[in-house]
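Record copied across here:
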Amino acid sequence: MDCQIKTDVNVAQKNGRVNLDGQNGSIARQLLHIPFTLGLLIMLFGPACRNGEPLSGAAQVESEAQQIKAPVRVVTYNYEVVKIYPHDSRAFTQGLLFHDGFLYESTGLNGQSSLRKVDLATGEVRQRVEVPATYFAEGLTLFNRRLYQLTWQSRLGFVYDLDSFQLQRNFNYRGEGWGLTHDGNQLVMSDGTNRLRFLDPETLDVKREVDVLDVDRPINLLNELEYVKGDLWSNIWQSDRLVRINMQSGAVTGWVNLAGLLSAEDRLRGTDVLNGIAYDERGDRLFVTGKLWPKLFEIRLIERQARPSR
C-alpha cells in the first residue's frame, strides 16, 4: 500500500472520520469494502512509514521497540557466590565469554589491549595476541568459530580465527564500540548509550536497533553483554548492577546488584569497575569479574521480588 494513502487513512481514522474525496479517497472507499481480516492484514504488512515516507534500514527498525507495549514483569535478584577463581589483576576486562572449558577475554587500554584464551581454574593465559597500541579493545563474542572484537573510539572491529587467533578481517561501524554478544543468529552490540544494534555476522550490517527502557526511563551506559537463556544481560558502566533485557522490545526485565561481590580489601589493590559477564550454557554457570580484578566469580541468581513495569 502506498505510504501516503496509508497515512491519510490512519490520520482520518484517528480523527474519527474517513476522507472519501479525491484519488486517495477512492482507494480508501475500496479498502472500507474489503473484509475486515484482509484489510487488517494489509494495514499490518504494508510498508512502515513515518510522515508519509517509507522507513528503511535502521530507521524502520528503530521504531520496533515503541510498537511493543505489553506489560513486562521486572524481577529483582539477589546473588550467591558459588565459586571463586583467580583472575589476572593486570587485565582491564572489556569483553568476556566461555567456550569449551576456557574463558576468552578482550582487554583494553591503549598499548595494553589484547585477545586472550584463559584457563578458568588457574587464571593462566594459554594463548594471546596483542592489539596494536593505537586501539583500545572492547567487547568480544564468538560466532561460528570466529572471534569478533570491538574497539572503543576507532570505529573498527577485528575478526579472528578461534583456534589460531589469526586475524581474518577488519570491519567498520559508526560511533563507539562497547559490548558485544550474539543470540545464535545475529551479533548484538552496545555503544555506551541505551541503544542496542543487531548485526548480520557475515556482512556486519546493522539489521535492527532497539532502545533499552525501564518503563519509560532510558538505561544508558550499557557495557559488556552476554546472551543467557534467551535474554540479554548487560553491565552498566561505573555501576555494580547488571540488567536483564528483552531482546525484541528492549524492555528491562530484571536487575541484580552485585555490590559487595569484591571485598573492600581487594578493592584497595587498584581495581576498577565491575565488567565482564560469561555464561557456560552446558553447565548453566554464570561468571562475572571486573577491570583489574584479582578474582572471577561464579554466581547464582536468586529471585527476590517482581514488579510490573507499567
